[in-house]
Write a structure and sequence with these properties.
The structure is a single chain. The protein contains four helices and four strands. A four-stranded antiparallel beta sheet has the order 2-3-1-4. The longest helix is centred in the N-terminal third of the chain and has 15 residues. The radius of gyration is 15 Å and the shape is globular.
Length: about 120
């Protein structure tokens, strides 16, 4: 478990960033970068990967194949720098004041066992 924690320590989940069926990889990467720039994060942050997680689902939790209804899959951002991670993590609540990203939630990427323990608290 410690090894898994170590590899996940600079990963962040971005929730409630809608996507459409025709969105490309660059589309959601730009959305994440735009949300981070609203936080005042450095524009040149380095990441290993930024990707959507899971199958597309609509707001009702049903698999979405429709182009009309946006999907709400979380986005996983794997940052390279612990300093970038810390600056984003401590400024995450500033997104609530942003007009475009007021519904976006940022969470740490926790292993499933640890996430269940935190949920109990």
């Amino acid at each position: 478990m410690k090894l898994e924690d170590y590899f996940r320590r600079e990963n962040l989940h971005f929730h409630i960033i809608p996507e459409n069926a025709r969105e490309t990889n660059e589309g959601y990467v730009q959305k994440v970068k735009q949300a981070l720039s609203n936080l005042g994060a450095p524009s040149d942050f380095k990441s290993r990967a930024i990707c959507r997680m899971g199958k597309p689902k609509n707001s009702y939790g049903v698999s979405s194949t429709s182009e009309r209804e946006p999907s709400l899959r979380p986005i996983l951002a794997c940052l390279l720098s612990p300093m970038d991670f810390e600056s984003i993590w401590f400024k995450r609540k500033a997104l609530l004041k942003s007009p475009c990203f007021s519904t976006v939630l940022i969470e740490k990427d926790l292993p499933p066992k640890l996430a269940r323990e935190w949920a109990k608290l």
